[in-house]
Amino acid sequence: MLGGCATQYPAAPAMASSADYSYVIGPGDAVNIVVWRNPELSMSVPVRPDGKITTPLVEDLPAIGKDASTLARDIEKALGKYIRDPIVTVVVTGFVGPYSEQIRVVGEAAKPQILSYKQRMTLLDVMIAVGGITDFADGNSASILRTSEGGKQYSVRLKDLLRKGDVSANVEMKPGDVLIIPQGWF
Predict the structure, then answer these.
(1) Does residue 9 lie in a domain region?
(2) Lower CB density within 10 Å: C or N end of the chain?
(3) Domain check: are 87 and 109 in the same one?
């Protein structure tokens, strides 16, 4: 009798998100900065690949890893040298997120890619974004590598979810998850 070569991991937990999740800014995001009563200082700027932003009067301010409110307070502090009691609002308008929070899909997905994490994102959401699995995928041998748990791996049943509509196979994703879809042998 032939035994399977695939390594079996524990099933992924159905619930994974936490209620206290807060979006953090990453390279490639766009932020809209509004400085009250100073329209000449208000503008939309990209977060550079090095994680910094530049605006008038504020050069090379680190933005990566901060939420919008924290970045607004940092800009207020920097502008405080030039303007009395600046009031700044930051709105993130383009969402990419930091690399550590992006969802990566590798292997036999129709379109392997990196996705921005969204709170309460599920495996089904990820599969819709990547266009499903290829005809050569071994969907029920797929796994999630959970970097937030030190690289722990969980098995997921993609074939059951996508081909049979088994919603019990749908699980929540976490920031930084890597979905690995192996190729089937036949």
Answers:
(1) no
(2) N
(3) no
